Amino acid sequence: MSIKLRLIIMNFLQYFIWGSWLISFGSYVGNSLGFDGVQIGSFFATMGIASLFMPGLMGIVADKWVPAQKLLGLCHLLGALSLIAASFQTEYGLLYTCMLLSVIFYMPTLALSNSVAYNALEKEGLDIVKDFPPIRVWGTIGFIAAMWVVDFSGFKLNHMQLWLSAVAALVLGFYAFSLPKCEITKTTTNKSLVDSLGLRAFTLFKDKNMAIFFIFSMLLGAALQITNSFGDLFLSSFASDPQYIDSFGVKHSVVLLSISQISEVVFILTIPFFLKKFGIKNVMLISMFAWVLRFGLFGIGDPGSGLWLLLLSNIVYGMAFDFFNISGSLYVEQTTNSSIRASAQGVFMIMTNGVGAVLGSYAAGLVVNHYTEFNAGFRTGDWQSTWFVFAAYMIVVGILFAIIFKKK
Predict the structure, then answer these.
(1) DSSP H or E run through 379
(2) Which residues sit opposite 378 in a β-bridge?
(3) Residues 284, 290, 291, 297: what is their CA dihedral angle, to the nearest 10 degrees?
């Protein structure tokens, strides 16, 4: 088996694990278990909590003590056990603990899988820049495939989605041990924990413009998990209305939401054109107002005559997600010193996927609780106002960013 095919299998499974529950879990705990908005949001906030410290810690372990491919395997095996334990829980505290453990082991594997791939390609004498993207795209395909399996199997409202994820994690856990060996670094230089975790880059906050950029990264990061947390729960709520109960958008809501991931693949290819035409600041503004459309179209759409609005919302998602993540990363790359550039990228991820995601998940849960309630197996109520609140939030963030952020 060629190394490219072996890495394709790794990437497919890596994101199949995540796609098995990330989009549908909100419906499971919201509709089937009856948890409220804040509780639902807290499950998705666990990813932000794990992102604050685990990737850095596991990076140190992989560099100094355990080869990356073995650590990748161990993390997935432990994550699989956590998911299996979670599948048996229906009480909030125990389920939350199990899911927190599962993401603590999963989030570091996003970086570890990339490290394993880079190492393997280098050993084969291949061009990482040229050969890795076509391999990585199979991760997105794996994520979409998992969503479709969950939808068509009927797992989206029960614990079997966790079993599906766990089985994939077990397979990848054992498979990772067969991947090319990654060397550990034998160094005599004793770096401080602050330097090892890349926290030295937080000195960038002394620069006014970078501080503003990172703060807005956090504010935008608050929007990243909202539709993952509540999108399928929202679509499932239409099943309480007889006119929508047999509609495609309700029966196959996860498939409908998978258009968002397909859109990501398309829009990432357009970024070079938009950056050249409009510049980084304007591309980031486009992203912010794309989030306004993402939420606003959810607010006015429905699975019946308004299905096209939901489709458009999912298409816009690719622009909203990719344009800020990629252009923001490029801004950090262009404006930071090479000595802390990698660490600065870590700070960018901490602010968006860490602090921002945690705050956003809990805040969104409060909004959902305010406008909706659990009723006869569904989370029903004024979902339109819920989405309009999220859209208004992004309008304010976008306007403030346009006024305050001054690109040098």
Answers:
(1) strand 378-381
(2) 375
(3) 180
Q: pLDDT confidence of 169, banded at 50, 70, 90?
A: very high
The one-letter amino acid code at 125 reads G
The CB-side HSE value for 254 (13 A sphere, CA atoms) comes to: 26
Nearest to 353 by CA among 106, 139, 152: 106
Residue 330 CB coordination number (10 Å): 15
Distance, CA of 291 to CA of 319 (rounded, Å): 8
What CA–CA distance (Å, rounded) separates 160 from 379? Answer: 21
The number of angstroms, rounded, from the C-alpha of 82 to the middle of its chain's C-alpha atoms is 19
- 50 phi, psi to nearest 5 deg: -65, -35
Q: Which helix (H) or strand (E) holds 68?
A: helix 68-87
Q: Torsions phi, psi of 303, nearest 5?
A: -75, -5
Q: Decide: helix, strand or coil at residue 378.
A: strand
Measured CA to CA, the distance from residue 377 to residue 299 in angstroms comes to: 21
Q: Helices (DSSP H) in 301-379: which residue ranges?
A: 307-335, 341-349, 357-371
Only one residue has tokens 């960018």, namely: 348
pTM, to two decimals? 0.90
**Per-residue pLDDT, 329:** 78
In angstroms, the CA 299 to CA 391 distance is 9
Q: Which phi-psi region, left, alpha or beta, contains residue 198 (left: φ > 0; alpha: ψ -120 to 50)? A: left
Q: How far is CA 125 from CA 13, 79, 176, 373, in A?
A: 25, 32, 21, 57
* Residue 47 φ/ψ, nearest 5 degrees: -65, -35
C-alpha 352: how far from chain center: 10
Overall size of the chain counted in residues: 408
Angle (CA) 370 258 380, round 5°? 25
Quote the tokens at residue 295.
């939420």
What is the C-alpha to C-alpha distance for residues 219 and 241, in angstroms, rounded to an integer? 35
User: Tens digits of per-residue pLDDT, 372-381?
Assistant: 998 878 889 9
Q: Other C-beta atoms within 10 Å of 107: how many?
A: 26
